[in-house]
């Protein structure tokens, strides 16, 4: 048996109105078209459903048996259709973001605040996760947008470059500045320093599986310092704190400069060579991209550009 919802709705309407002409008008089809639909449904059931005269339409015994079942089915499907439409509307008004801890703690508050002012009816949700987990959340459809340093392409992911950031040396301000300046608890940047200057430094870093650390090790190899045993920490905030305490020099993107602003550390862009890496937005390949995604991304890109300009200016 192959009966469509449209046929069931037409049957219920004819049975309720008792008139083919008025039912056809309600359905926006011709009376002849409606008659064809009713003959098809009668053929499917193998029984007449209506007794027709020139003046009236009445249900047969088979029609009376079908009417409550058809009415209930149509009613339930209409109710579910309304619920599904509401779900879709709610999804369109929800934005799920996945980001690494530094992005979440130092950038997302600004981004969320600005976006909420422009879109007070949008529910913006944040998943804090490590880089690989951010990508997994996006691939599984549990997050709409992901933000971080995604250095490798993935078959199921679309990457959008938002900003390129240079690598910088972060060290204790007290090592280079007068004690009074160090006590101010504010990041200082005196421009640039060469990778060669790291030869005699005590280095601290991220774990070896981190793609940023892998890039750092590539360039440390040129001065004979690659893959050495050294203290390793998973988060940039921890590295910055350790550097501030004088426990070592960290190498990280200028992207982390906002996290250094209120710490007694010195930030210097590394040169010879100057090394950049890209900060990306990722989405699941093949998904439609609502206007809200574009608006949030543009807001985030403007913030990224300000950070890069701040690092250049100091």
**Domain count:** 3
Helical content stands at: 40-55%
Record field, number of beta strands: 10
Low-confidence stretches: 176-189
Described by its quaternary structure, the protein is single chain
CATH topology descriptor of the largest domain: D-Maltodextrin-Binding Protein, domain 2
CATH class of the largest domain: Alpha Beta
Could you please describe the fold and organization of this structure?
- The structure is a single chain.
- The chain has twelve helices and ten strands.
- The protein is of the alpha/beta class and 314 residues long.
- The chain folds into three domains: 5-90, Arc Repressor Mutant, subunit A (Orthogonal Bundle); 94-164 and 278-312, Periplasmic binding protein-like II (D-Maltodextrin-Binding Protein, domain 2, 3-Layer(aba) Sandwich); 165-276, Periplasmic binding protein-like II (D-Maltodextrin-Binding Protein, domain 2).
- Strands 3, 4, 5, 6, 7, 8, 9 and 10 form an eight-stranded mixed β-sheet that branches.
């Amino acid at each position: 048996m192959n009966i469509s919802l449209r046929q069931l709705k037409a049957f219920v309407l004819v049975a309720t109105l008792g008139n083919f002409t008025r039912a056809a008008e309600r359905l926006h089809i011709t009376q002849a078209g409606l008659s064809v639909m009713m003959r098809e449904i009668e053929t499917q059931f193998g029984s007449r459903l209506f007794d027709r005269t020139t003046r009236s339409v009445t249900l047969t015994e088979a029609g009376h048996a079908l009417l409550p079942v058809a009415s209930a089915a149509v009613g339930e499907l209409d109710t579910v259709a309304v619920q599904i439409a509401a779900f879709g509307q709610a999804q369109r008004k929800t934005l799920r973001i996945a980001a690494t801890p530094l992005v979440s703690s130092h950038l997302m508050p600004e981004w969320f605040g600005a976006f909420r002012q422009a879109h007070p009816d949008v529910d913006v949700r944040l998943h804090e996760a490590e880089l690989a987990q951010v990508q997994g959340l996006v691939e599984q459809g549990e997050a709409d947008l992901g933000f971080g340093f995604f250095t490798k392409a993935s078959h199921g992911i679309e990457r959008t470059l938002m900003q390129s950031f240079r690598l910088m040396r972060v060290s204790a301000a007290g090592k280079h500045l007068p004690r009074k300046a160090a006590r101010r608890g504010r990041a200082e940047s005196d421009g640039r320093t060469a990778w060669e200057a790291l030869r005699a430094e005590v280095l601290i870093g991220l774990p070896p599986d981190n793609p940023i650390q892998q890039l750092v090790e590539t360039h440390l190899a040129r001065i004979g310092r690659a893959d050495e045993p050294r203290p390793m920490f998973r988060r940039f905030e921890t590295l910055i704190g350790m550097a501030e305490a004088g426990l070592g020099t960290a190498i990280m993107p200028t992207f982390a400069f906002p996290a250094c602003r209120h710490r007694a550390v010195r930030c210097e862009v590394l040169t010879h060579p100057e090394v950049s890496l890209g900060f990306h937005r990722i989405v699941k390949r093949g998904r439609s991209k609502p206007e809200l995604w574009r608006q949030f991304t543009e807001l985030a890109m403007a913030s990224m550009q300000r950070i890069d300009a701040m690092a250049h200016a100091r």
